[in-house]
Amino acid sequence: EVPPESITLIFERFISKERGEPPDIDVDFEHERREEVIQWIYQRYGRERAGLTATVIHFRSRAAIREVGKVMGLSQDVIARLSGQIWGWSSAAPGEDRMRDAG
Questions:
Q1: Which of 34, 41, 33, 1 lies closest to 17 in space, CA to CA?
Q2: Is residue 69 part of a domain?
Q3: Engineered SS bond to 23: which of 14, 64, 78, 89, CB 3.0-4.6 Å?
Q4: What is the rounded distance in angstroms from the CA atom of residue 51 to the CA atom of residue 85?
Q5: Same domain, 40 and 76
Q6: In a domain, 56, yes or no
Q7: d(CA 18, CA 102)
Q8: 55 lies in a domain?
């Protein structure tokens, strides 16, 4: 047992007695090795002690433009101009000319 109040730990909330349950682990790993990691966890801890959850994110067009723009290193003003070309509920992509004009 580790007394979290006596040690400065980033994860101290996970080992607190007030939590009332064992800690969980949130790990991100490359998708190519997903099955390898899952099988390792099952072998190490057993299927009866391991669980899987997943979060699926669905981006609307404007949010997708913003995320891709960040990854590509575009400036915030260019990202704003590009994403501003898309109407919030539209599933249609803006024309190539409009995107070129936006930057």
A1: 1
A2: yes
A3: 14
A4: 42
A5: no
A6: no
A7: 53
A8: no
pLDDT attached to residue 70: 94
**Lookup: tokens for 57:** 């994110």
Torsion of CA 27, 31, 34, 35, to 10 degrees: 170
User: 55 phi and psi, to 5 degrees?
Assistant: -120, 125
Quick one: 95 and 66 in the same domain?
A: yes
Write out pLDDT tens, residues 54-68.
Answer: 778 888 888 888 999
Burial label for 86, CB within 10 Å (0-12, 13-18, 19+), is: buried
Which DSSP string corresponds to the chain? ---GGGS--TTGGGG-GGG-S---------GGGHHHHHHHHHHHH-GGG-----------HHHHHHHHHHHTT--HHHHHHHHTTS-TT--SPPPHHHHHHH-
Amino acid residing at 50: A
